[in-house]
């Protein structure tokens, strides 16, 4: 407990030392939802990341114990745990990157609408604290449904005058990780050497790997060569859940850790990292869209857009996914309006009560 109590002070002292000795000081990560299956595995991977010098774990319960457990791991990053909503500001203090993995996993037969209702409160509760405590932090949303929750998060941040489209991301790295793995099986090469852009959104119908722009080159004669891989990527979550009897937490943790590492490299101005992610975009007529992004000191340095040219079948699939993605974005924005109306009513009620007392 003493280790946890002194976390904030040690962290700030650590930052002061690093500011005087190195430029790579953008390295404090807060994981919201650290007690879940993804959160624990992700936190372990981040504790092993040499560029993460301070790791703050938050959840409604068990976060302090998990942090204490991880504090015995022989890496140099400081670690602290925080529980209950009133401790969230302390968890977020000084954060450079905030990763949100909290919320309910998708259960069998659950629709995106049902999942949105289950998990919207995670965004509604956490965004105001981020806006107040660490408004310049990069925010990586993993909680599903990403296609709706990222637009919702943007609207909540706007109400707090803390929205920067270059600093808000919907994580889709797991789609690229899976695509690289499946392509490496076909090419018989090391999966880490494969590059493939995955655009669109993060739902089964909106994920689109662009296989004609794979490196090393994957020979695609027609859509019959591509569709089995695209389908495999889109069905991966269901396939794992059916076999495992639980959501695919480990590939998610691995993928989110990779994305977080790239964000940190970008903040430090190192390596010109490029990752696909779901962000506010003008690339298409969808307000939010996943494309390759060059990451830098302020988050998105450049949106690299949709790879060109697309094969005919890829262009057709892109057009097919657009209505679904637009609808998901619309639902997130509509949910934000409901929340805003509710808050306005509550504020008016509070003012009325105060007036009556006077």
What's a quick, concise take on this entry?
This protein has 358 residues and is α/β, with parallel strands linked by helices. The chain folds into 2 domains: 2-16 and 24-171, Rossmann fold (3-Layer(aba) Sandwich), CATH 3.40.50; 173-328, L-2-Hydroxyisocaproate Dehydrogenase, Chain A, domain 2.
Arrangement of strands in the largest sheet: 3-2-1-4-5-6-9-10-11
Sheet bearing the most strands, described? 9 strands, mixed
Would you list the SSEs in sequence order as H and E?
Answer: HHEHEHEHEHEHEHEEHHEEEH
**Total number of domains:** 2
The helix/strand class is alpha/beta
Shape, per Cα inertia axes? globular
Number of helices: 11
Number of strands: 11
Distance between the termini: 46 Å
Compute the CA-based radius of gyration. 21 Å
Mean pLDDT: 90
Domain Lactate/malate dehydrogenase C-terminal: 175-334
Family: Belongs to the LDH/MDH superfamily. MDH type 1 family.
Enzyme class: oxidoreductase
Organism: Ceratitis capitata (Mediterranean fruit fly)
Structure characteristics:
16% strand; L-2-Hydroxyisocaproate Dehydrogenase, Chain A, domain 2; nine-stranded mixed beta sheet; two-stranded antiparallel ribbon; disordered N terminus; 11 helices; alpha/beta
Description:
The chain has 358 residues and is of the alpha/beta class. The protein folds into 2 domains: 163 residues, NAD(P)-binding Rossmann-like Domain (Rossmann fold); 156 residues, L-2-Hydroxyisocaproate Dehydrogenase, Chain A, domain 2 (Alpha-Beta Complex), CATH 3.90.110.10. 51% of the residues lie in helices and 16% in strands. The strands form 2 sheets. The chain has a 9-stranded mixed beta sheet with strand order 3-2-1-4-5-6-9-10-11, sandwiched between helices. It has a two-stranded antiparallel ribbon with strand order 7-8. The N terminus and C terminus are likely disordered.
């Amino acid at each position: 407990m003493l280790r946890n109590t002194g976390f904030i002070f040690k962290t700030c002292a650590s930052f002061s030392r690093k500011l005087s000795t190195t430029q790579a000081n953008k390295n404090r990560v807060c994981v919201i939802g650290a007690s879940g299956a993804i959160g624990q595995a992700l936190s372990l991977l981040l504790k092993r990341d040499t560029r993460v010098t301070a790791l703050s774990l938050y959840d409604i319960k068990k976060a302090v114990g998990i942090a204490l457990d991880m504090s015995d791991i022989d890496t140099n990053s400081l670690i602290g745990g925080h529980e209950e909503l009133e401790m969230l500001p302390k968890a977020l203090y000084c954060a450079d990157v905030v990763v949100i993995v909290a919320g309910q996993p998708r259960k069998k037969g659950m629709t995106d609408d049902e999942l949105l209702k289950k998990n919207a409160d995670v965004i509604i509760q956490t965004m105001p604290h981020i806006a107040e405590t660490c408004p310049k932090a990069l925010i990586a949303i993993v909680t599903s449904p990403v296609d709706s929750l990222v637009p919702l998060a943007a609207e909540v941040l706007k109400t707090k005058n803390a929205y920067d489209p270059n600093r808000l991301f919907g994580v889709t790295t797991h789609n690229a990780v899976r695509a690289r793995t499946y392509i490496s099986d076909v090419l018989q090469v090391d999966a880490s050497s494969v590059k493939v852009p995955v655009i669109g959104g993060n739902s089964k119908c909106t994920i689109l790997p662009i296989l004609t722009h794979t490196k090393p080159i994957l020979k695609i004669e027609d859509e019959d060569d591509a569709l089995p891989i695209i389908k495999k990527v889109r069905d991966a979550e269901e396939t794992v859940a059916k076999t495992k009897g639980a959501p695919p937490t480990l590939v998610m943790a691995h993928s989110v850790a990779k994305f977080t590492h790239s964000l940190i490299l970008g903040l430090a101005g190192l390596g010109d990292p490029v990752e696909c992610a779901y962000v506010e975009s003008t690339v298409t007529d969808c307000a939010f869209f996943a494309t390759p992004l060059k990451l830098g000191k302020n988050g998105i340095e450049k949106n690299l857009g949709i790879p060109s040219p697309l094969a005919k079948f890829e262009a057709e699939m892109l057009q097919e996914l657009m209505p679904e993605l637009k609808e998901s974005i619309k639902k997130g924005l509509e949910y934000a309006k409901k929340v805003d109306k509710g808050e306005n009513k509550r504020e008016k009620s509070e003012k009325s009560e105060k007036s009556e007392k006077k």
